[in-house]
Amino acid sequence: MNFIITSPLYYVNDKPHLGSVYTTIICDSIARYKRLREENVLFITGVDEHGLKIQRTAINNGISPKEHCDEVSDIFKKNWTKWNISFNKFIRTTSQEHKKVVYEFYEKVKESNDIYMGTQKGWYCVGCEEFKDNPDNSPSRQCPIHKKNLEWKNESNLFFRLSKYQKDIEELIKNPDFIEPKERRNEIINFVSKGLKDFSISRTNLDWGIRVPDHLNHTFYVWFDALLGYVSAISSTDNNCSLDLSIESGWPANLHIIGKDILRFHAIYWPAMLISAGMKPPKKILGHGFLTREGQKMGKSLGNVLDPEILLNKYGEEAVRWYLLKDISIGSDGDFQDRRFVDIINNDLANTIGNLLNRTISMSRKWFNNQTPSISEKINNEIITLANNSIKNYLIYFDNYKLDKASNEILNFATNVNLYLNKKEPWSLIKDDKNINEVKLIIYNVLESTRIIGTLMQPILPEFSNKILYQLGAQNIEKRDWEKRLNWGLLPESNDLPTPIPIISKLDYE
Ligand SMILES: [Zn+2]
Question: 134 CA distance to ligand 1 centroid (A)?
C-alpha cells in the first residue's frame, strides 16, 4: 500500500530551528515505522521559498532572492541528512515542476468559478505575511509576534471563494480521524462554525513569487503556492508533471504533520482548495504543539533560542530524537530542559537499556564461552507475557501516532526485564553447578528481551537499534520481515557475542 506522509515545506528566511527539527523527526519516525510495516512510503519534505520576507532578507544580505533560496534550501537538505531523516522527496517551490502545478491548479479553481478580484485593506505584518484583524491601538501598531510595526496596505487582490465550501468543510471535520489531536480538532470546529470567509490568494508589488498568469502584476500568495508543493512533490517524473500524474502517484496524502500554528490553513483552506480543483482532501492532519525552553517561550528577542545544530553536535541526533519523541506527547506543548534532557538520556538509554544489554552480554560471554547460552526449553511464561503485552501496546500506540507512549512502552519493558534479572540473581546461582540450566535460561531470556527492545527501537532510534542488534550478533535475523522479528525465541543459541562496548555514552551536566 502507498503511504504518503509530509512535513511542512519550511520557510527559508532562516536555517532550520528546533521546531522544524521536531516536526521532521516525528515524520521520519512514522515513515520508518510504516516502511517496517511493509507500506510503500513516500515521505515528502521541502521548502517554501517565496514571499516578501525572503525578498527583504536577501536584499539585506546583498544577494538576490534566488541566491538566498539556493543557499538556505541547501542548508535544510544537508541538515536533514545530518539528522538521519529518511525523506524520499525534497520539493522546492522555486522549481519549474512546482510552477507548472500551480498554474494547472489555478486554472482548475478558476473553472469552478472560485476566483474573483476584491480589495484587501488593513494592517499587515511582513514577518507573518498576513493581515492582522485586530491590531492594537498604539500609534506603532505592532505585531504581537514580531514586535515590529505593521504596514498599512490597501490593494486589489485575487480572492478564493472559501465561503462556498462551508458545508464541505463541516462535513470533512465531522470525521474524528481527520484532525488530531482532539483539542486541535475542537479549535477548528469552533472556527468553522463562525462562518468561513473568502481569503486572498495574490499580492501586488511583490516580485519574488510565481506570477499569476492572467494578472501579471500579481504573484500568488503563500497558500496558493506553498501548499501546492505537496502535490507537485508527487506529481513529477523526470520530464513531466501534472495534477493527473499526482493522482496516479497516490494523491491524496495520508498524513500531513504540522505545527499547530498552521493547522487552520491545512485543515480548512487546503481541503477547500483541493475540492475546488476536483481533487481529494488529505486523509489526516496531525498538529503538534510548540516547544518552550526551561518553561519559557523561545524567541530571538529573549535570546534563549536553542540552536538544533549545537544540540546535534553536542549530543548526537539520537539523544535529541529520544527526548523529543519520548518526552513530548504529539499535540501537547513540550519543554526542553537541559537537566531533564541529560537525566532522560542517562536513565533510559545508558542505564535501563544500555547497561542491561552490556552486563548481560558480559555474563553470557564469561560463563558460556563468549556465546549466547544453549537452553533446553525456551518456555518462560513470565517474561514472554511481558514481551508480548508490550509489543501489542506498542503497535497500537504507533498505529495511532502516540509515539511517546510507544517509546515509554519499550522503556517499561526494559525496566521489567531489569527487575527480572535482579530478582533472579544469576550471578549468585552460577556459584552452584546444579543451577546451570536455570542460569542459561535467565541469560537467554534477558538477551532475547534486549533483541526485542532493539527491534522495537528501529523506527524511533535507528542507529541505537542497529547497535543493540549488532552487539547480540543478531544481524542475520534482521533480514526477516519486521513483525515476525517480534516473535519470541529468534535469538540463536550458542551464537558468538562480540565484545560489549557501551552503545551510548553517558552525558554530563554542563
Ligand atoms: Zn508578525
Answer: 13
The C-alpha atoms of residue 107 and residue 68 are separated, in whole angstroms, by 30
123 Cα–ligand 1 center, Å? 11
- Per-residue model confidence (pLDDT) at position 220: 97
Mean pLDDT for back-to-back runs of 10 residues, the chain (510 residues): 93 94 98 95 97 93 97 97 97 95 98 96 82 71 84 91 98 96 92 96 92 96 95 81 92 96 95 98 96 89 89 95 97 93 97 98 98 83 94 98 98 98 98 96 96 98 96 80 93 94 88
**Integer Cα distance of 299 and 18 in angstroms:** 12
Predicted TM-score (pTM) of this structure? 0.94
Cα dist. 177→25, 41, 188, 272, 393 in Å? 22, 20, 13, 18, 20
Determine the distance separating the centroid of ligand 1 and the alpha carbon of 152, expressed in angstroms: 13
| 76 in Cβ contact with 93 (< 8 Å) | no
Planar angle of CA 178, 172, 287, nearest 5 degrees: 30
For residues 248 and 261, what is the distance between their CA atoms, to the nearest angstrom? 31
Q: How far is the CA of 73 from the centre of ligand 1 (A)?
A: 23
Query: Which residues are within 8 A (CB) of 180 and not within 5 positions of it... i.e. 6 or more apart?
Result: 284, 285, 286, 287, 331, 401
Cis peptide before 252 (omega within 30 of 0): yes
Please give the distance, rounded to the nearest whole angstrom, from the Cα atom of residue 149 to the centre of ligand 1. 9
How far is ligand 1, taken at its centre, from the CA of residue 222, in Å? Answer: 15
Q: Which residues fall within 8 angstroms of residue 218, CB to CB, at 6 or more apart?
A: 157, 158, 202, 203, 204, 211, 212
Residue 141 backbone zone (phi > 0: left; psi -120 to 50: alpha; other: beta): left
Nearby residues of 431 by Cβ (< 8 Å), 6 or more positions away: none
Give the type of residue at 53: K
Count of CA atoms in the C-beta half-sphere (13 A) of 243 = 16
Q: What is the C-alpha to C-alpha distance for residues 8 and 20, in angstroms, rounded to an integer?
A: 8
Annotate 219-257 with DSSP letters as a single string: EE-GGGTTTTHHHHHHHB-SS-B-HHHHHHTTPSPSEEE
How many angstroms separate the alpha carbon of residue 127 from the centre of ligand 1?
A: 4
Q: Which candidate, 300, 340, 304, 305, places its Cα nearest to that of 320?
A: 340
Q: Report in angstroms the alpha-carbon separations of 316 from 83, 304, 501.
A: 9, 21, 18
DSSP 201: -
Give the C-alpha separation, 140 to 151, whole Å: 9
Q: Strands across the sheet with 211-212, in order?
A: 202-204, 215-220, 211-212
Convert 299-321 into a string of H (helix), E (strand) and C (coil): CCCCCCCCCHHHHHHHHCHHHHH
Ligand 1 centroid to 483 CA: how many Å?
47
User: What pLDDT, on a 0 to 100 scale, did the predictor assign at position 378?
Assistant: 65
Where do we find the cell 541566491?
A: 67
Residue 181 alpha carbon to ligand 1 centre in Å: 26
Cα separation, 457 vs 462, whole angstroms: 7
